[in-house]
Design a protein that fits this description.
- By secondary structure, the chain is of the alpha/beta class.
- The chain is built from 15 helices and 7 strands.
- The strands form 2 sheets. The protein has a 5-stranded mixed sheet, with helices on both faces. A two-stranded antiparallel sheet has the order 5-6.
- Helix 1 crosses helix 2 and helix 12 runs parallel beside helix 14.
- The longest helix is centred in the first third of the chain and has 16 residues.
- The radius of gyration is 20 Å and the shape is globular.
- About 5% of the residues have low confidence.
Length: about 290
């Protein structure tokens, strides 16, 4: 998922910033990004980040949705046991939720069953003071989702901060990450107004996201209403992700509005089989 991958990129690009933010360490030493593959039936997930510093591990899990299979709480227990077995050191686990909804699952911070209880820290970005995020370049994209009474003013502050970054590549990367995460909260017209796309073209993360299709659809004129190009692009992306598309499903896609096509362009990043597309379309039937 593009949002999770963007957060993973930030944590791996600016690991010390995340350690200072989430652990009681003023000046972390020798921060290392650990591989995300764990022993005992290896698993690998794009939204996982393991940072090791001062003989402890910071395990970050970025989530846009409160539900998963298996549930987040069980996964945190599973990761904890695997990490403890593999590294034998202190482990700090933090689940960072990006997008606000009314789900009670956003407040679950432990796994429990008849014989086991395992706790971890939950951080809801929309409740976080933006001050601690605005002061650190690597955390600026996350600031777009932090607490504020004036979202536009906050986004303008972030744009101003990024504009002061002198190193071109870092500025481009942070602009790209900011645009992606801001899309969870802000209108696309405002994002385009405050963040110039041409500045981002040299960004590694921008190119990676573009390949995933999140920004490619916009570049081809999805928002401007060139529906034929959008349909062609989405069909290619869907075929690459889930295989051939049934004729009746193609007909459903062709009836979507431009706005719905853009939503599908982002949603397809989570698809793994044809039923995911079918369910998404059925959810939008009158």
């Amino acid at each position: 998922m593009a949002y999770d991958n963007t957060c993973k990129y930030l944590a791996e690009k600016f690991p010390a910033a995340f350690v200072r933010w989430l652990l009681p360490i003023d000046e972390p030493t020798d921060v290392q990004v650990l591989k995300t593959e764990l022993i005992q039936e290896p698993i690998r997930a794009d939204s996982l980040v393991f940072l090791q510093t001062d003989n402890q591990i910071l395990h970050l899990e970025f989530e846009t949705r409160p539900y998963s299979d298996p549930p987040i709480a069980f996964r945190m227990l599973d990761y904890y046991v695997r990490l403890k077995r593999q590294y034998s050191c202190s482990i700090n686990q933090v689940v960072i939720f990006l997008q606000q909804t009314a789900s009670e699952q956003f407040f679950v911070s432990e796994y429990t069953d008849a014989n086991t209880r395992h706790g971890y820290r939950v951080l809801r970005l929309w409740e976080q003071d933006p001050a601690s995020l605005l002061s650190v370049p690597g955390l600026l994209p996350l600031a777009t989702l932090s607490q504020t009474n004036s979202p536009r003013t906050l986004l303008e502050q972030i744009a101003t901060q990024i504009a002061t970054i002198e190193e071109p590549t870092q500025q481009a990367d942070l602009l790209a990450c900011t645009q992606v995460l801001a899309g969870l909260r802000f209108e696309k017209d405002l994002i385009r107004q405050l963040f110039r796309k041409e500045t981002m073209r040299g960004s590694v993360i921008y190119q990676e996201i573009r390949e995933d299709g999140l920004l490619e659809g916009r570049q081809l004129g999805l928002l401007e209403g060139r529906k034929d190009e959008a349909l062609s692009l989405l069909t290619r992306q869907l075929t690459r992700r889930i295989g051939s598309i049934a004729p009746e499903t193609r007909e459903q896609i062709q009836t979507l509005s431009v706005e719905e096509l853009e939503d599908l362009g982002e949603a397809l990043l989570d698809f793994s089989e044809a039923s995911d597309l079918t369910n998404w379309l059925n959810d939008r039937q009158p």
